[in-house]
Amino acid sequence: MTTADDPASGEQTLVVRLRVNGMWHEVRVPGRRLLSDALRHDLRLTGTHVGCEHGVCGACTVLLDGEPVRSCLLLAASADGHELTTVEGLAEPDGTLHPVQQAFVDCHGLQCGFCTPGFVMTIAAYLRENPDPDEDDALAACAGNLCRCTGYQNIKAAVLRAAELSRGTGR
Amino acid sequence: MKPAPFTYHRPVELDAALDLLGRLRDAGQHAKVLAGGQSLLPMLSMRLAEPAHVVDINALAGLDGVDVDAAGVRVGALVRHRGLERHAGAGAVLPLLRQALRQVAHPTIRNRGTSVGSLCHADPAAELPAVLALLGGAVVARSRRGERRIQAPDFFLGPLESALEPDELAVATQFHRPPPGTGTAFVEVARRHGDYAVCGVAAAVTVDEAGRVRAARAAYVSAGEGIGALDLGAAVAGAGVDVAAWADAGELARGLVATESDIHASAQYRSQLVAVLTARALQDAAAQAGLDSTSHASALDPAQGAR
Questions:
Q1: Closest listed residue to residue B10, CA positions, set B57, B53, B48
Q2: Which of A123, A138, A167, B296 has its CA 20 to 30 A from that of B193?
Q3: Do residues B223 and B259 touch, judged by C-beta distance below 8 A?
Q4: Is B191 touching A (CB cutoff 8 A)?
Q5: Domain B7-56 has what CATH class?
Q6: What is the pLDDT of residues B57-114, one digit of tens each?
Q7: What number does CATH give the domain B182-294?
Q8: B240 with B219: CB under 8 angstroms?
Q9: Which residues of A touch B42 (CB under 8 A)?
Q10: Across the interface, which of A1, A54, A61 has its CB nearest the CB of B42?
Q11: Assigned CATH for B66-176
Q12: Is B109 touching A (CB cutoff 8 A)?
C-alpha cells in the first residue's frame, strides 16, 4: 500500500486495492475512509446503503471474503487486497435474480427498499450455512438488520421462500 | 458521522508494530490499535475517540491461533469471535466461551470483531470481559520492553479502561480451565437477540463426587461499572445440587452488585434481573456440572479430555 499526502489538506492518503464483485479496483483514499463510503463514493456502487453509520442498522452489510460484515465498521484501507461482494454482485450476469432477491419480490419483502441490500446480503450468507431454517431461525437470521417500513413478517417469509428456491435451483 | 483525520499504519511484522507503538508513545502521540474495529470504528465515527494514529494489526502473522491444552484456551489477538465460537476444541474444554460468544452482538459483527479486542475495550456491557473475570486467566501484552501477563483481576481498571500501556499490544488471552466437576452457563436478557444485554450473568458451579456444591461464582454483563467475579458459595456451598438454594445466591448477588439506571432499564429492574438471572445461571451451571461427571475421571486420565 503506497501512501502520499493530499496536497490540499495535508492529510495522508493511501492507494487501496479492492476486488469487488470479481473486478479489481484501485482507489486513493484517506485512512479514515469507511469501506461503505469507498464503495459508494469512490467506486460509485451505490447499492450498498448507509443508514446509521455505527453498526446498528445493517443496511451497509457486504460480504468480505464471503462472510457478511458491516461496511461502515471497516476502514477501506483494512479491506486492501480483499474480496468483496455487494448487492450489485448477487444476480447472475444475465440478470437472473439471486434466490434471495427473487424471494423478496415473491413475498413483498421490501417496500421503500432502503434496508433491503443489507437484508439480502445477510440472508444470502446465512442460507449458505443454514439451508433449511424454520420460522424462528429465519427471524434470528435477520435480527441484526433494521427495517422501518416493510415489517419483518414479509422479510421472514422471504427467508423461508429463498431457502425453498435455493433448494430447488441447487444454489 | 465520519472519523476525524488520522495517520493509518498497517505494519506486517510484530516487531515493527511494537516499535511503532513505542515510538508513538515516546513522541506523546495518541495511537489506537485496530483489530476487528467493531467498537473502535463507531467510536471514531462518533468522534468519541480522535487518535492521531491508527495501527491496524490485521496484517500481522501468527496472531490468529487458538491453542487448547489442559490449562485452558489461548486465543490470539486476531481470532474473530466467530472463529472462536466455531472452534470445536475450545468449545469442548470451555463450553462457556461458546455460550457467551453466541450472545455477542450479531453474527455479522462476530465475523469481524475479535475476542481479545473485546477484552481490551473493557466494556462492562460486553460478554467476554465477564467470561475472563469468571474463568480467570491473563492477557498477554507485548511491547519493545518485553512481554508481561496481566492477570484478569488486574486487567480491568474501570469502564472502557484496561491496564494496557499505550505502547503495549495485547497479543493473546489465556482463559483458564476450571477445576474438574465444574459446569458453566451464560444467560442474558436483551430487548432483541444480539442487542446489548440489559443484564447478563456468566456462572460457574463446581460439584464434588457426592453431588454437593463446592464452589459457585458469577460475573456480570451490563449490571454496573465493574468487571469482576463474585463468590456466591456462602449461599449454596455444601448443599446438594438438587436442593441448593439458588434463589438465595441470587439474593446474595443482588446485594453485592451495584446496578445503575440508564435509558434501557432502571437500577431496580437491573437488580431484580441480577437476582433472577444469577439463580437461573447457577442452576443451569450446576446441571452441567452434574452431567460432567466424566470430568473427574478425564482430569486424571490424559487419554481423555480435549488435549
A1: B57
A2: A167
A3: yes
A4: no
A5: alpha beta
A6: 999 999 999 999 999 999 999 999 999 999 999 999 999 999 999 999 999 999 999 9
A7: 3.30.390.50
A8: no
A9: 54-55, 73
A10: A54
A11: 3.30.465.10
A12: yes
